[in-house]
Amino acid sequence: MRNVNEGRRSFLKDIGKVSGATILATTPLVSAFAKESGAANEKKVKIGLIGPGSRGRYLLTYLMQDPACEVVALCDDYQPSLDAALKLAPQAKTYTDYRKLLEDKSIDAVVIATPPAEHHVMTIDAFAAGKHVYCEKSLAFTPELCLDSYRKYKESGLVLFVGQQRLAHPVYIKAMEMIESGAIGEIQGIRAHWFRNGSWRRDCPKELDRKINWRVYKDISHGMMTELACHQLQIGTWAKKMLPKRIMGSGSLTYWKDGRDIYDNIMLIYEFEDGVKMSYQSIISNKFNGCEEQILGNLGTFELEKNRLFYESIPPAPGILRLINEMEHKVFSAVPFAGTSWAPETAQEYKGEYVVDPRKLRPGSDGTDLLLEQFVRAVAEKKPNEWIASQGYYAAVLALLGDIAMREDRVVEFPQELIL
Amino acid sequence: MKDLVISACRVKFELWSLFACFVLANVVNIYSIISFKSNWGELLSMWYVVLALSVAFYVAFAIVRLLIMVIKRVVKR
Q1: Is the alpha carbon torsion for A175, A180, A185, A187 positive or negative?
Q2: Residues facing residue A162 across a β-bridge
Q3: Helix/strand number for chain B, H first, E second
Q4: Using CA atoms, how far apart are residues A44 and A104, in angstroms rounded to an integer?
Q5: Which of A155, A192, A406, B11 satisfies CB 3.0 to 4.6 Å to A251 for a cystine?
C-alpha cells in the first residue's frame, strides 16, 4: 500500500518539476505573443461549450476573443441559455444533448460549465470521444469520481484543465515564486475567506427552480465548498507544496432559510503534517471582510486578492522625513491650540508592497482568460499539462473532503487512496 | 504704473541665496541620514524633499528680510 508521505512527496516533486515552465508560459507577455502566432500560422482549435449558463457565457466571451480557437458548438437543455449564448457565438451549431455534440468529429475540445453533479459523466464521455476537456470546478461531485475522472484523463493522453483560474494569474504565480525563494520565510499559517451578501437565488418559475438555482441544492452542488472554497484551498496547498493531513469543520444554515439544503455559514481547518493550519471561512450574509487569501510566514505576509506583500520588519521612513516629523512634533506639542498640520504620516503607515506592478496586469482579469488561453494552446500543441490537471484534481478533493467533514461532523484524515 | 527694475546685482543675490538654501537643505539631509542611521541612497532618493526644504528655507529667508526692511522703515520715520 502506498505510503501517505510518499504520495505527499510525489505531490511536491510534481510541483517542482513543471512549475518553472508553467510560470514562464503564463506571463501575460508570453501569452500575448502566443496569441499572435496562433492567429497567423496555425489551425484554429474547435471548441464545443457545454452549459452556456452565466459562467459558461463568461468563458465564451474570452473564447470568442482568442484568435487561436473557434467556438463551433453550444449545448444546453435550457433554451434561454442557448439563445443568450448564440448572441455571442452566432455561427455555433446548437445541441440539447451533449452526447450528440461529442459525436461531432470536427470538435477538438469541450468546455464543460454545467453544474458540478454533471461534470464527471461529461468529462469521461468527452475523453472517450477523443476530446480535450476544460471542466469548470469542481472536477466531479465526490472525491472518488474526481479520481475516476483523473484516471480517465491519464489513460486518454488528452488535455485536462479544471477551472482554477488563479493557477494562471500573474500575482499568484509571482507570489509562489517568492515563497519558494524564501521571501516570507517559513509558512506558519494560511487564512482564506470569502464573505459575500447574497442568496445565490435568481427569480424563476417554480418548475425551473432546481435548474436555475442549482447552487443551493446539495444533490447538484456542494454550495460554498465547490463554488468558492475550492479556488482558495488550492492556493494553500500550492504555497505549502503539501497536502493536508486532516480536515475538520462546521457548517450551518443561519440566514438564507429559503428551502435550500446547503450551508450558508462555514468554517474549516485543514491541518498539515508539520502542524501548520489553513483556515477557511465563508458567510454569504455579510460582505464586510470580502474575499482574501493570506499566506503568513515568519518574515512576511501575502494578501493575494489585494496583490500585496507585507514584511514583518517594516522599513523605517527616510531620515529627513523623520527629522522633519520630530521637529514639527516638538514645535506643535508646545503650542496648546495647534496640531500637527503636515506630519508625514505616509512615512509611518505601511501599506505593504505590490507583488506584481498593477500596470503590468491585464485590466479586469481574474486569470480565467489566461487559463483558457493556456488550455487552447495546450490543445493546439496536444501537450497535456500534468501540473494543472493535478492541481485541479486536488482542489476539488480538498473542497469535497471539507464538505464531508462538515456534513458527517467528524475529522477526516486525507485518504491515501486519493493521493495521485 | 511704474516699470519694475530688477538689477543684475539683485538677481545674483537671490540666486546665491537660493543656492545657499539648497546647500543647507542637503546638509539637513546628511545630518538626518547620520543621526537616524539611514541609507546613504537617500541623498539622491529624497531629492524632492530637499527641493521642497530649499524652497521653504528661501521663503523663510525672504520673510525675515521683508520683516527687517519693514522694521527699518518704521524706525526711520
Answers
A1: positive
A2: A135
A3: 3, 0
A4: 16
A5: A406
As a whole number of angstroms, the distance between CA B28 and CA B45 comes to: 14
Residue A409 CA to residue A252 CA, distance in Å, equals 11
Q: What are phi and psi of A212, to 5 degrees?
A: -85, -40
Which run of H or of E encompasses A324? Answer: helix A319-333
Contact state of A318 with B42 under an 8 Å Cβ cutoff: yes
Quick one: CA dihedral A335, A338, A344, A349, positive or negative?
A: positive
Distance between A356 CA and the closest CA of chain B, angstroms:
22
Please count the other Cβ atoms lying within 10 Å of the Cβ belonging to residue A380.
Answer: 20
Grid cell locating A371: 487559463
In B, minimum Cα distance to A323 occurs at B32
CA angle in degrees (0–180, nearest 5) for A406-A411-A415: 105
Q: Does B44 contact chain A (CB < 8 Å)?
A: no
Q: Do B31 and A323 touch (CB under 8 A)?
A: yes
3-state helix, strand, coil in chain A (%, to 5): 45, 20, 35
Separation of alpha carbons B71 and A180, rounded Å: 69
Interface touch B49/A320, C-beta < 8 Å: yes
Q: Above 90 in pLDDT, residue A2?
A: no
- List pLDDT tens digits, range A237-269: 999 999 999 999 999 999 999 999 999 999 999
- Shortest Cα distance, chain A CAs vs residue B32, angstroms: 5
Give the C-alpha separation, A369 to A415, whole Å: 33
Amino acid in the structure at residue A397:
V
pLDDT band at B33 (very low <50, low <70, confident <90, very high): very high
Contact, A388 vs A162, CB < 8 A?
A: yes
| Element of type H or E holding B58 | helix B47-76
**B31 interface with A at CB cutoff 8 Å:** yes
Q: Per-residue pLDDT for A39 more than 90?
A: no
Whole-model pTM: value is 0.78
Query: pLDDT category, A333, cuts 50, 70, 90?
Result: low
d(CA A110, CA A40): 23
Cα-based distances in Å from A321 to A55, A414, B44, B47: 50, 53, 14, 12
Work out the minimum CA distance from A322 to partner chain B, whole angstroms. 8
